[in-house]
Specification:
mainly alpha; 7 helices; about 75% helix; globular
Length: about 190
């Protein structure tokens, strides 16, 4: 990517750090729930509700940083490549985004705020869910994370310019974001 040099390298490194933020925080909350519960008790807030609020703020920072990077790393490039919507790759990316959001939404509907935002770790009674997407013949392990990864990969295809592909940055962002979700899922499964 011409002309940005060291700025581009620093901006890309910063983007990868911001992508990591929620996942580092999730690992902390999963492995140290008492610390979060004590903090929430002092502030007189529900730990799951507070986690949800913070998660939304961090996600806004994450997505805003990604959008800023897309727009600033290739001056003049659009945020969403509408030209891809006439291409099978674009249709597949848009479909992936919709499928991912469907999984993500189904996970939220089944578990609710307390189930999604670690209520069980915060000593809340969360009923076991055996309905889709958690059970049945089309069950998906970690449907919220799987859905997020599928959506994110579709979004990267729809927002990356040819320069992002040529530099390897589009693939790196997708691989790093996917790895962060994988590590969050493994933490929740094994720690």
């Amino acid at each position: 990517m011409e002309g940005l040099g060291a700025y581009e390298d620093a901006a890309f490194a910063a983007l990868l750090c911001v992508i990591s933020l929620p996942h580092v925080w999730y690992v902390y909350l999963w492995t140290r729930p008492r610390s979060w519960m004590q903090s929430c008790k002092k502030r007189r807030v529900d730990p799951s509700v507070s986690m949800a609020q913070w998660a939304m703020a961090i996600k806004a920072l994450q997505f805003g940083s990604y959008a800023a990077w897309v727009l600033l790393s290739v001056p003049g490039a659009p945020l969403i490549r509408m030209d891809l919507l006439s291409d099978p790759v674009g249709w597949a990316a848009a479909a992936a985004f919709v499928v991912g959001q469907t999984l993500n939404g189904a996970a939220y509907r089944r578990l609710g705020l307390d189930g999604i935002y670690y209520g069980a770790r915060f000593n809340k009674s969360i009923p076991w869910c055996s309905k889709w997407p958690y059970g049945g013949p089309l069950a998906v392990p970690h449907p919220q994370y799987v859905g997020s990864v599928i959506s994110m990969l579709g979004a990267i295809v729809l927002t990356s310019s040819p320069e992002h592909y040529a530099s390897g940055h589009a693939a790196t962002v997708g691989a790093w974001w996917s790895t962060c979700y994988l590590l969050s899922g493994l933490t929740e499964a094994y720690l």
